[in-house]
Write a structure and sequence with these properties.
about 70 residues, 3-stranded antiparallel beta sheet, two-stranded antiparallel sheet
Length: about 70
């Protein structure tokens, strides 16, 4: 299973709360702007869903896709 991540950058305010939940997936760059990995393995599902849950702007969408 793969996990697809999408961040609506029109909603994201770069608070960085997601970074605390999944620091290997989300990070703030030197300018304070959010950077993220668009697809991760299924074993990161819990952390990525937690990151989406703590986003104050609810800008993160997580989608699970079956392994091919």
């Amino acid at each position: 299973m793969a996990i697809k991540i999408d961040v609506d950058m029109t909603k994201c305010q770069h608070y960085g709360q997601c970074c605390f939940e999944a620091e290997d997936v989300f990070a703030l760059d030197a300018d304070g702007k959010l950077q993220y990995v668009a697809e991760v393995s299924g074993d990161r599902l819990e952390a990525v869903e937690s990151a989406a849950d703590v986003c104050p702007m609810q800008a993160i969408t997580v989608t699970s896709t079956p392994a091919s």
